[in-house]
Prior knowledge:
By secondary structure, this protein is α+β, with helices and mostly antiparallel strands. Helix content is about 40%, strand content about 25%.
Amino acid sequence: MSTGGRLPEEASRLSANDGTAQVALALDAACRDLAIPADVRQLLAEARDALRSASSDAETARLRYHALFDAVPDPVSILDERGIVLDLNKAGMVAYRRPREEIVGQSIEVLNPDLPKGHLGPVWDTINRGRTYVIEVTNMRADGTRFPVEVHSAGFQHEGRTCLVAVARDLSSRQEAELRYRELMEVIDKGIVVQDEFLNFTYGNSAALRLLGIDGSESLDDAMRLQHWMLVREDGTVMPEAEYPAMRALREGRIIESTLVGLYHRQRRQLSWLSVTVVPQFAADADKPHQVLSMFSDVTELKRDSTLFDRVQALAHIGGWEWDATSDQLYLTDESVRILAQDAPPATMPRMIECLAASDRARLHAALDLAVREGRDFDLELQGARADGHAFWVRVIGGGVPGDPATSHLTGTLQDITELKHGEETLRVQARTDPLTGLMNRDAILGEISARLADPGQSGVAVLYIDLDRFKVVNDVLGHNAGDELLMNAARRILRAVGTEGLIARFGGDEFLVVCSTEDDPERPERVADAILDAFGDSFRFEKEEFTITASIGIARAPEHGDKPQTLIHNADAAMYDSKRRIRNGWQVFTPALAQSQQDRLRVETHLRRAADNNEFHLVYQPQVALQGGRIVAAEALIRWENRQLGEMRPDHFIGHAETTGDIVRIGSWVLREACRQVAQWRDAGLGIVRVAVNVSYRQFLGDDLADTVRGVLAEFGLPGTALELEFTERVLIEDDPDTLRTFARLREQGVVLTIDDFGEGYSALNYLRRLPIHGLKLSQLFVEGVPGNKSDVAVCQAVAGIARSLGLGLVAEGVESEQQRRFLLQLGVPIGQGFLFAPGLRPDEFARRLGAGTVQVDA
């Protein structure tokens, strides 16, 4: 065939890589071959034309790609998966100062020889997560010079292969000055640190970290906190913060030159001397430094033999020693001799070891042996005795002398840590001691109880829980100084009573614990309890005041009442609570019945919390009547609680729980509003305005603004203030507080009648009574029930009546149950009473029925 030899010749003129063009030439030759059928030649011609068209499009795309590729002003390189350079733009040839042929086909290390092994791993990891990988590196030109670049790498498909495109931005202009500065900082032999305006450490060069003994495991700022270091003046005294060179430079805005500073590391117990120069640095247009740069060098070696260094070593109680193991010669510095304080300075190691405790002699001897044989360093805390018999503690640090291959010489330091050990013991004792009374504290006694219960040799342990009766009253009336004095006095009395029979602790507030053994004496807990109660028989005194304080004690035994500390204490507390409830100044042993009582109390408190929301409360009204004639003049609202599970509950069964839990505030608010609503209902029924007395809890008084609450409730039901009487306990008398007086004055301005309930039961502060703008007193049932037969009760009633008359206050007697009581009170001048002699608490309709005969007189 005449055309058979032309295809290779024409194809040879094309690029060897242009496969498409080669195929097109072959097809063209085939089309001219007459031996091929015409219809086949037609098909081959169509295929040739299509290939040439595709080749033209591809060439256009290739030219556009290279135009864009070369137009990028930053070096751009194309890499395959192994990091081989496939292409490089013109900016890259200019930047690297190499022709394209020297780079294409080479590994990327030709541009950056400092790349670590496996550097492409994190690049591909980032790209495979759909992100661009950015890094700052240093690239190399053809002449070996380096320049910093910021490289952004991304993945793409190139000619059917997964490749990287990397764009390098030259950072020379931005980093040149910074690099020179940082290189200078790192190569300089001086320590350099930078602190901000708050003296936080923001930078430290390598020399600084080395001189300060800081490794890379912690930050410079954390390592330099003041709790780790103590700064010392040149004379060896502690340097105040105001004298710190960095502080002075910040404050004065000037260079502080060549200041000698002793730097003592508390944990390492190591003292170094530094010569420090501090330079303040100002931001643009600032008149105060925003940071300081400190440059320092270690001058410890220069000071080692100086008088100053010896003096500071003495102040730090650190001496030095050197021992020649071959000749057994021991050298001690003057401070080491002073620390040991022997009759004659020991010249050999055995002589020095003699002053140590027997167990510590063996420890030091073993450490010296290992140091000589195996080159091990050691750090020991040892106890010994000086020539005068006084004990001391020393810390001995030692090791081989550098450059001594035989390790025949050992050297180290000797530090007096006696005060530190005493301080640690003091802290240990303080951590277990109540600071006010000197007794064991809560944590200490819990530990002791745990230890005794865990000791198989202890077959019986008892806990006495002691609570002081009426302590809070004294503390509130006479103040915290009197309360603290009372607690210290009580602690001394308990100590005398218990003696060696048990351990004593202040458990919290006015509560004490005694822990004693019952193994050899089963009756010991009760006997100790009796002794404690006897110790409280005498009155307590504070300045000119004299008062009686008693104690209530609960007893729980292990194992029958519990085998864990908290269980024992909890059960002893329950017994104490029962003793306080039944008879103060007594003791009670825990019983299962008390456990049931605790459960019942918890049950009551649980239901009580939901009682108001479940509409379980209602009020009854006990008439207050004129003792002369029996005319009803007012009523006292008394709360009752009816629960489906607990039944009818009187106030004395649940008010104490409500006070303890704080539910009394919600309950008191409900009572106030319900009483006013009932008064309005009676008024609307034509019965007139009935004054109703409502008890106010002290917690209510301390809570929200009582005067505003009362004003709102009265306004809601359109009642005058004279329709409401508020009864407070004597506790308000001790609140000599402007807010208390102001609240009473605002209530009185509304016309509300203010009364002190159960007057005489508590600590009646008459001096405060005359200051409060109150209207009257209520004589407690506790005293009324004994008249006229009991002389003491008669005397109290006469005294209260006299107080009321002298202050111009009204007086109501509670608990009048007999005609004899009524006549006595009437003769005493008490005008009004209430009690079962007249009526119990009545339902609203029954109370209204009794009022139906006529109108009610309301005393304003």
